[in-house]
Amino acid sequence: MKAIKKEFTFKSVSGLADIHAASYKPENESSIKAVFQIAHGMAEHLERYEAFADVLCENGFAVYINDHLGHGQSISSDDELGYFGKKDGWKNFVEDCHTLLEIAKEENPGKPVIFFGHSMGSFVSRSFSFKYANELSGAVFCGTSGPNPAAGMGAAIAALIGKVKGTHHRSAFIDKLAFGAYNKKFEGRTAFDWLSRDNEQVDKYIADSLCGFLFTAYGYRDMFNLLSSVSGKDWFENYPKALPVLIISGSMDPVGAYTKGVKQVYDGLKNAGKDNITMHIYENARHEILNEKECFEKVCSDVISWADSIV
Description:
- The chain is of the alpha/beta class.
- It has 10 helices and 8 strands.
- It has helices at 50-58, 90-107, 120-131, 151-165, 172-179, 199-207, 217-229, 233-238, 260-271, 296-310, and strands at 4-11, 18-25, 34-39, 61-66, 113-118, 138-142, 245-250, 277-282.
- The protein has an 8-stranded mixed β-sheet, with helices on both faces.
- The two termini are 23 Å apart.
């Protein structure tokens, strides 16, 4: 069954662009038991989640997702790809997602909402669920990262380059600093083999002009600051204990330091007294576990089983 898709826009809190969004619903709307809100990853867009949205709809969930500011169709021009604002641009991600949450709640009154974030979107999920836990029934961190001691330095370097060369300058040096080692353990067929074992999916990503683009200098600053904001002692100690959390990752995901970083997030929450937390690691899967034929069905099954248990 194909989900019924509706596209729409709303104003970004940043004032920089209109945010492009979509909802996916089962044909029989009376069958909707809860809502999934999805935050996509860095340098990609909402259409890459349609297969996942279809499966969720088949299982009684409505799905809402937006292109983050500076991504997909949430731009005023191509020059704005990877740019999120002059100051604290990462906060625009969170607040734009909150606008979408309000739309989802208005269209699905009384339905529980689960916030699902992948990769950079998992940092958004961690920040969003920290701030808006009282409006959620659960949060999913997919393909997330542990604390990165170099994030503060990365943000400072990116901010300096942006100050000297311009806020929209695109620096291959910062990109290498952030992602240079990610492909080292893999075949080297392309620069993005670390994303998935599925060559077709990797090739589609590379061929997509709205995927894999370089962030601006200030965009990298914001990405590093976003990670830092959800990696400190304060985040772990004050994360809402009653909110159910699911952490999922591939064992060969370099973003999660091949499970080491993922387990740091899990252990950090556990050690802070958070009990309602579940983790699944998918053996040999890489970063995009929703784009791997070998584990897509298993990931969907685990996410849906967990969601059913909390709603």
